[in-house]
## 1
Amino acid sequence: MSETLPPLPTPQEPSDKPRLLEVGFAPDEPCLRADAARNRARLLEAATRLIAEHGVAGVTMEAVATAAGVGKGTVFRRFGDRTGLLLALLDHSAHRLQSDFLAGPPPLGPGAPPVDRLRALGVAVLYRYAEQLDLLLAAQSEPTRRHSHPAARALHMHTAMLLRQILPDADCELLAQTLVGYLDPALVHHLTRQCDMPLERLEAGWNDLVTRVTGADPQR
């Protein structure tokens, strides 16, 4: 029998101050020296220019090194591999989303009922992912990184927290995986680009899914 899930704090939000999860840095370098941070920023700027000019396919470790005027080994030391570089390019968007759902205005941020926040979360993710689909898909080329990256874990943890406030007796860890699976970039790509579904239909589907999973009143 699985262990009982820990009870939520009484307030709507966790009792401790919300903190952004770190994304993009290796576990052994939570903060970079000033010169290393400048080099990292220059490499990311070069990669961003390459995407604008040639698409995600134009971002290779060698191309970024050439565009930034550094040796290829510098790029590998900073990001590990191409997937690590692409994940780093998504850091800003990930931090912005976390800021919005941890401390932004309702309904995405604190102050709205948890069901409304859950609905707003999925809609925000859908539209942000739609803007970055090519980069997201390229960054998720290794399945083992898909769920373990800090940005993905932050989304799952927040979804599970909201679910516990709505369904305290449910296995919210697994329910959160189900809901977050609806927002998978590969699925969004398939539905919008291969099935020609408008984002508005995916938004309506998300709201319907939340309603059915939580048993809440349909959104009016």
## 2
Amino acid sequence: AAERKWHKNQKQADLKNYQLLLASFSASITTAKAEFYHNKFSSLTDSRKLFATFKSLLNPPPPPTTCLTAETLASFFTGKVAAISNQFTDVTCSSSTTCSAARCPSTEGVAFSSFTSLTENETLALLTRSRPTTCPLDPIPSNLLQTIAPAIIPAITHTINASLTSGVFPTAFKQAHVTPLLKKPSLNPAQVDNYRPVSLLPFLSKTLERAVLNQVSGFLSQNDLLHQNQSGFKKGHSTETALLSVTEALKTARAAGQSSVLILLDLSAAFDTVNHDFLLTILSNMGTSDNVLSWFRSYLTGRSFKVLWQGQLSSAHSLSTGVPQGSVLGPLLFSIYTASLGQVIHSHGFSYHCFADDTQLYLSFSPEDHSISARISQCLSDISSWMKEHHLQLNLSKTELLVIPANWPPGLRSKTTPNDPECSSTSGLQPAKTGSCHPAAH
């Protein structure tokens, strides 16, 4: 909270308060660790146990060995995205795309056709203020690059400006190394579908993206084109603001004697299945054109990845859909791509809030309203149609529905039953519970 207050006000007093709290927190952590290890070792009187404890701390257990290979994992990640994409009609800028773009906010007579070149000081600020994440594709460690940045900043500035003015994203920056991570520690490490891909991108690639992000965000903000109900990857917003927005609305409704229904939508490989033609059409409708639109087309196309797994490196796999995960621009582009979903949700009287690719929609109603099940069914049906139109797939096993009942008088419960047995908790008068909800069934 202190950090956000300082970022918002930029006052020296707020910065000092944040630094004091941070120092106090770090000191508390250090003290707690010291006490933990002191108690752990002082209780060991057996030298064998003592050295075994030292060994376990200094040499953590290696990751579980499996028969999986880098090529197997790479083929799985590619095949998963292809399986989702192949479900949809292969069209480019068809009537459905035009319809989607028409629902997005647009600018009348305002265009963003060219980027502004950076000065060397602006490039240096972008380079040195970024977190020095290092990718195996980087020629030198990122923190070393930041150290020597003043000596090579003219060359880096020239590279960035050449990309901005030509509308071409460098081919060398379109490669990624993917590290598979288990989704949960309890899952079987031998099953390939228990892993999620984590992309590592070159540091200079992300520096160029930050230069573009600053200018694109400024254009979208000035023309009121940013997604208002999106808390993910937006300055001044976080998971906290998303949770507060939803929970306060539900608490307010209950205080007013209303029941509420909350639906949690989850997507499968959402970032990886974004259709490039659709996204470029939406960007064009929002005012980007000429050099800027060419740059985004170059940024999206021709990308590839290799999986790095237990010292092995797979062959290169090309990407024909999606926005790069782990990138700087990917989250903003996904937010733009899904902005029109809000209009579908609002058309049924639902409110909603998003964080990245997770969407929470909710509706408050009188406990005596018997039309709620039908409204939920129709809303989910239209959302399912929107998803298909945008080549996105709902993860039905993780899409959940929760009913929050009001304080009803006795005798009002269980007066109605839902139409869809798959969504048994959608009745406006059922007790609060959760259940998987299958929009496709409607």
## 3
Amino acid sequence: MTLTAPFLRAAPQSGAARPLRAILMGFATCLVLPALTAEAATPHHATHARPGHGSVAPAANPPEDAILGTINGQVLTERDVDNRGKLFALSTGLNISADLMQRLRPQIIRQLVDERIKTQEILKRHINVEPQQIAQAINNIESRNGMPKNALRDRLAQDGVSLTTLIDQIRVQIGWMQVLREEISGRGRITAREISQREEALRAEEGRAQYNVSEIFIPVADPRHSETELEFTKTIITQLRNGAPFPIVAAQFSQAQTALDGGTMGWVQEDSLDPPVVEIVRQMPIGAISNPVKVAGGYVIVTVNGKRTIGHQNVTMITVRQAFFPFSSPLNPQAPTDQQKLTLQKATAAAQSVHGCESMEALNRSLGEKHPSDPGGQLVLERLNPQMRQVLADLPVGQSSRPLVSSDGIALLTVCTKGQKNIAQQSPSEIADSLMNERVEQASRQLERDLERRSVIEMRKDDKTASAKASDDAAADDEAPAKPAHHGSEQGGAAQGGKPHGKPVSDQG
């Protein structure tokens, strides 16, 4: 008897059985780290990491405590930059050479400068990010990826990355969201009139094209000399085309507010994008990575996740329940154990006798609920992987599927509900969320711009990577602005016809 494993179950695999690179979503940022694997269980130093496993080639570096500069008197050291670089290498799962890391260095420093400024504002407002909030964010990362408790901490330690590096990023994200809530607290809630006006505008746009776009925005400090930023943008594009996940790179390097959401802008219309971006997305196939696109204030890299016509996108919505029969050891399809053979017999018998979602939930409880009975709420059938879509597409409501074998057990699925929905039409609550996002985005870009202008940034003379940030405003007075309207300079968008091309952060309040 041979067990085959043609299907992946809907629930996450256990940390010990997952592929090396897995997306770990943070609280409000898209940090990605390779999940634990059996192979990765042996500790190793980061400089000896295996190619393709998120490693940085060793290089001669300045002393770790070397001071690179100060931001309003707060020190930025070589160690800070090195740790963030290691975190990025581990995030992508790629083999990052010392030469490439050196080219990424200016943007790492720029990001750290931004975070220092935000942290200082958080402290100034006496906003306290509780340790429990950070711990919960890390726990969420682990649980969403089927990782045991403290697995993330252990993996970072194995790869020579300080846990403080991850904690600092999470603390800034949580604290900055609280700052933004304070900024918009006096502006009231979204009114029924505003929702009605947006609904009317959407009806008027019915039939026009919409694009689901993600972006990475690289600002140009001095529009007269953009060679450095262009070269950096090309380097990032090469890494993306070599397999670096777009959300991770966006979270690490994009200077748009959408970086908090992995670069995702959501569904946007052509008149919400810069004209050069519109020309690109019209022609781009789904999943492609663009060349550098020059926009007001910098360069943008875009990828198209989907295309649709406003008002017309019918999909099949389903709800599913599952029962999971666990194996006591990982499956070898060519040599199943007696326990695995017996498990298959039990699952096959259950598939014939269990009918309906309540019965499937009861069966899963009797099996110890190793996986949740509800694998994900309402699901869009067309967005499931092809194998799972094939199983569920023609499965009658209430009937059990055939046994679906995976490496650690066997799943039975049953469809509870199935119906058509036009997901291109936004509900009033979705419109309210969109309007609030826009309000938060406006507050964020205004505050960031004001804080940068008031900051005193002093970088050492032989490291000019972030010192240009302090001169952005001076350059903006004489030339084109350093950032477009959406990314932090309202003047920039007006002067150069720039369009906002980012999805604002969600209102966490």
## 4
Amino acid sequence: MGGPELPRQQEPSLGLADVAQFYGWTSSIEDVITRMQDDKTGGVPIRTVKSFLSKIPSVVTGTDIVQWLMKNLNIEDPAEAIHMGSLIAAQGYIFPISDHVLTLKDDGTFYRFQAPYFWPSNCWEPENTDYAIYLCKRTMQNKARLELADYEAENLARLQRAFARKWEFIFMQAEAQVKIDRKKDKTERKILDSQERAFWDVHRPVPGCVNTTEMDIRKCRRMKNPQRVKKSVYGVTEDSQSQSPVHMPSQPARKTTKDDVRKQLYTHSFHLCIFSFLFSCYSLITYSDQYIDYDPFITPAEPSNPWINDDAVFWDLETSKEPSQHRVKRWGFSIDEVLKDPVGRDQFLRFLESEFSSENLRFWLAVQDLKKQPLQDVATRVEDIWQEFLAPGAQSAINLDSHSYEITSQNVKDPGRYTYEDAQEHIYKLMKSDSYARFLRSNAYQDLLLAKKKVSVGKDMLASLKGAHLQLHKGRTPGARAAC
């Protein structure tokens, strides 16, 4: 043994600073972790392991870590090296990828290094709102790989009850993080998911495991100063010490005053406004990316811009009953794009007629037409629509729920341009959720796209063949051209 024997103690009372000083390290434990990952100075070999059907990226074995500790820290007894590695793992600097138990084993178990972002030196005391966002995000991701354990599912249900009033905010933030994560590389996302899981294994450990943060001196100091603003994993900060629905506090909480409630409401409202603003910006960017090809200020009109020349082909294409592929593609954005395009409405109506459900669209169009009628014709038109679509034994009866039907029946007694507003909204939702989705998958819509592609390809091939023929004709002698 290159040094005095360490006490065999598994509780977190033995601090890492004491262990570092005991071995004469001039820097913190994190410098040792950095050296362990440095290939240039003989660090632990980090490699990608091929599994049966996939690859496991950026892992090391427990044996490699034990051997590195024995070699670089002058430890002769493997048991001491395992003890040292377990103390490091208990703080979350290294973690196993197969389970949630933060200990080091001298075998082929795969381990991964924690990202510096989650190191304990950041002095984070994560709130239960952070934990709720994490668990909620896990339920939205790959269930086969990130399925909640039983104790996590219980914690999620407990947190949902505790934060019932702001659960919508938590769900929205988790949903936004999932959208961002899906844009990342698959390998990178797998590594980050495991590192985030290890962070919570430290701060919300598996029942029965040692909680290394329970008696932390930093936590005790913050309990004496509850007004200190705490750093949060996901950017959510709270000014006051909140009761934990997962881990009950050891001391009774101070009675909440009106000022505390007012401050919490203001803070939560502010966070919700900020997130709503960011979500609106994201929606605007998504909308802009989707419609960029249809913005004449950004994408020039094809075949030519009628606003800057005398070519009227663009207007002819817009009024044509045979829409271009560019126009047909736009119908797939939303049902509104179909309904506001006359050709789109005709194609949609033909599809519904093939499914014997055209009465929904005809009712919707009739109500739209009613809103444009002169006032003296409104009452007659309201009665005609009622007899055609809603009266008992109507020829083209539509399917309304009882609530909408009752409201519409009362409105018909005092007819107006907006008598059928509730019924029209109900039919619109039916078409949007059912008929429109089937229309996009139908052969009628797909044929419109493919037909335009085939015509375009045929014209390109004809133009290329014609050009080749002209080039060949120019290269021949006059006699040969005459013979041709």
